[in-house]
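[audit] Reproducing an earlier prediction to check determinism. Same input, same settings, fresh worker. If the tokens differ from the archived copy the diff job will pick it up downstream; this log only records the rerun itself.
[audit] input (80 residues):
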Amino acid sequence: MVVVLILLVARRAFFGTWGSGLMLAGVVGFAGMLVYGEMAIAGVAVDLLSTGLFLMLSVAAVERSSASRVGRGRLPTAEE
């Protein structure tokens, strides 16, 4: 919960809106529910590698949302 609060405050300070932090927290939370839910259905144990998967997913979400906001929604493609 503390991480979500830090995320919200950081997004507010950087982008000037609470909406960006709430959106990011919602996306990361939903993705986490999907990842850990599918792991539970498959019977996979939670270990260091599986928590690393969620960490990579979270970092990718933060990087994607920050880059799209700063770069005005345009990210470089493989052709560029």
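[audit] rerun output stored. Observation attached for the diff report: The chain has one domain: 2-69.
[audit] end
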